[in-house]
Amino acid sequence: MAISRYRNTKNINSDYQDTFSPIIATDIQSNTDIFYVVLDGDRLDTLARKFLGDGKYWWIISLLNDMSMPFGDTMKPGTIIRIPTNITSILINI
């Protein structure tokens, strides 16, 4: 009988589900946010680098715009997306 290579792998239980508090898009919106019209070739990481100072914050733009599939059709040229101007409150709460 073959031995499974996963025999010593532990299951992740639901205790980890509540590790991070949920971030809701409307809670992080501000009157100073930038509304940006997506251009052909734009990517979330390059927009995050341009507006937020670091490409690793692409997920903040995705969250604020409720993009369930951030690398799909939501980034079509002409789409208007909201980019936060202050991400400190978001980063403090994660």
Structural summary, described in words:
The protein has helices spanning 25-28, 44-52, 58-64, 88-92; strands spanning 34-37, 80-83. It has a domain at 33-92: Membrane-bound Lytic Murein Transglycosylase D, Chain A (Roll), CATH 3.10.350. It contains four helices and two strands. The radius of gyration is 18 Å and the shape is elongated. It has a two-stranded antiparallel sheet with strand order 1-2.
Structural class: alpha+beta
Count helical runs: 4
CATH fold field value of the domain at 33-92 = Membrane-bound Lytic Murein Transglycosylase D, Chain A
Strand residue content: 5-15%
Which oligomeric form is depicted?
single chain
User: What Rg, in angstroms, do the CA atoms define?
Assistant: 18 Å
How would you summarize the topology of this molecule?
Blueprint: H1 25-28, E1 34-37, H2 44-52, H3 58-64, E2 80-83, H4 88-92
Antiparallel strand pairs: 1-2
Helix pairs in contact: 2-3
